[in-house]
Amino acid sequence: MFIRSICTAWLLFVLVDGKAQDKSAPSPTDTLASVKHAPEAWESVLITNNPDDVRGLTRIGEVSARSHWGGGSSQNLDEREVRKNVKRNTAVVGGTVFFLQDRFPVWGGVKMIGIAYK
Fold it and tell me: pTM of the prediction?
């Protein structure tokens, strides 16, 4: 009985410690954490509306972002916030280029919709 409890405790330690887990494929949480701690990952995302810039790249999926500022005096703040959020969202899904399809004002801010490419 004593040996069984020692083996169970050791197995539990190994599984919790992560040595017995497969580390070949990162989980989505690991990917999101690496983007959070590596600002250059999202800051280097290119925003473009030129179809030639994405020719030959792999389409990942649709990405959008919306600012939550309002009023005419904060228009530049709206644009900066949306661009930053679009870059972050693109980096989270693994993209390096954001192809802008539409940018339009919404009540209280600005919204951008596009496609992430890598």
Answer: 0.62
